[in-house]
Amino acid sequence: MSVRFFGVVRSWVDKFFEIEKNDRIKLVNLAITFFFIIGSYSILRSLKASIFLGFVGREYQPLAKIIALAMLFPVMFLYSKVVDKVRRYQVVLIAFIFYAIVCLIFAGIFMHPIYGVRNTMTSPYRLVGWMFEFFMDFYQALIVSGFWSFVTSISTPNFANKTYGMIVAASRIGGIVSTMLGVALLNNTFLEGWMSISLIAFSGALLLLCAAFFLYRIVKKIPRNELHGYEAAYVASAQKEQSKEKTGVFEGLRLMITEPYVMGLFGMVCSFEIINIIFDYKMEVLMSIETHNNVAAMSRFMMIYTGTFQALSFFLAFFGTTAFLRYVGIRFGIFVMPLTMLGLGFVLFSYPSLSTVFVVLVISRALNYGFNNPIREVLYIPTIKDIQFKSKSWIDSFGRTISKSSGSAINLMAAFQSIGLQTVFMFVFITSVSSIWLVIAYMMGRKYVKTVENNEVIGINDNSNNL
């Protein structure tokens, strides 16, 4: 019975997506892998804000974003070294396993009576709070970004248009399920708050190990010649490696600065993060006040918030992204996010309250994860390996970190102004960033379509001309 059922499911998937057997294997295993990644990220990210606010204090949150910028260079130096030494899938597996081990260490520390959650004293000298904040700051760049680097390196534009929405939709289910379990643990009357938080961190580690297993299955089940993705980019990258040209650990940063297309990707990431950190900080301050800075209460609020935007992003990815990519295309899809952020900024600063910022952030994050991210990942397909792995990691780490630092600086500047001036200042800033984002989106969409139509590659020789 079960064999017959799975046979029917496989037949339906092949017919619905119009894909071959190996592409179906890729789709299913990538979807399951991302399910576990986002399941882990959702519950760990929910702890990030509450741990820092409860351990260190909300007044140090903008400073933490600025300090993270200084930590970026040694982290990316090590990551680039790993990319040069091992194969594509091994880069991702190493990151998964490393984060799982560190997460298990944090799970043990959170149980400690002095260094853990049971200590309710808030102090800038509580290093565990700072360390967990920085640990989670690089999760997006090393885990999520690393996964997408691998996906784009084995995907064709046709495969991406048909399946990226479904991969993202599966991941959102992981986020919904994990946050529901997190809320259940925090509401369990038989468990102390500190024990629930430690179990949540432990669960995050286990989910990452599951993600590593299913990613490894892709490499073992699919022939190597079927893992090339965009063939022109694969050939260009292979030729570059065979020539034994030493690119160096800062090659990704060099390409990001010198290639207009890659700088455009950097600009898209920065635009969202700068606006989003302003929204985020506003919600975290209001949440801290509302919950009296209680770690368990803040964790519960963040779990509910995360589960809500994961649910909305699931519907966007499942019913909107795939259809949009297949029938409308990238060129128009990348305009959706900057236009939405412009509208949300107007709503938030017209009606500033915890409930309003909650709704605004749910919509912005759901749209970003369910629609904007898969569209942006498609833009990496016609690029060489150094861009897909090295530049992408710099964009997702440096781009996010510097934009969060910039947004935090804006938050600090606004804090010294009157309420009326804050509103005007923030709205003008968000409007300016969104307008620049729209210009970048137009140029990126045009360049992508032209590159794919001409079967060109971005990032090698003189092929990546101006946008």
Task: Provide keyphrases for this structure.
467 residues, mainly alpha
Describe this structure in words.
The chain has 467 residues and is mainly α. Helix content is 81%, strand content 0%. The chain is built from 17 helices and no strands. 51% of the residues are buried. The mean pLDDT is 80.
Oligomer: single chain
Shape: globular
Assign the structural class, choosing from mainly alpha, mainly beta, alpha/beta, alpha+beta, or little secondary structure. mainly alpha
Kindly report the average pLDDT value.
80
Describe the main β-sheet briefly: none
- The N- to C-terminal Cα distance equals 55 Å
Radius of gyration, whole Å: 22 Å
Low-confidence stretches: none
Put the structure in a nutshell.
The radius of gyration is 22 Å and the shape is globular.
Could you give the topology of this structure?
Layout: H1 2-17, H2 21-55, H3 61-85, H4 88-109, H5 127-137, H6 139-153, H7 157-187, H8 193-221, H9 231-242, H10 251-258, H11 260-290, H12 295-327, H13 330-333, H14 336-350, H15 354-378, H16 385-415, H17 419-453
